[in-house]
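Quick one: structure for this chain?
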Amino acid sequence: MQNRLLAEKYPIHVLELGKNETEHAHLDELLKAVEASAEADPTVRLIAVFDHLSHTQLIGGEVRPDILAAKNLIFCFGVKLLDPTMMAVRPRSIGFAELPDRYVVSFLEAPMPEANRKMIEWVTSLRKTT
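Got it. Here's what it folds into:
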């Protein structure tokens, strides 16, 4: 798992996972595995799965040619709402992209350390253990 700064201002976590490094054969299987982890957490509310690739193609947008699939799992931890401006960073989303040889799983760092810990755990669990 790598920590990066996207566009010089957004802290993100990224896992690049070779297709041979996971037991999941399709992007939807990766997404379902993380979705099951989120669903098992009583502090998480699942909201939706958004097919970003289909949306972008439907509106005639530009897609890098080697992106085969791209979906977001959208959910919210939301254990506190003490500041109305926190709405700017909610809900959470984990992005799943499929390239010919690998998957790229990424998410924006959350302001809540426990949320980051859980999302890192969910995502890193997609790697095969040998």
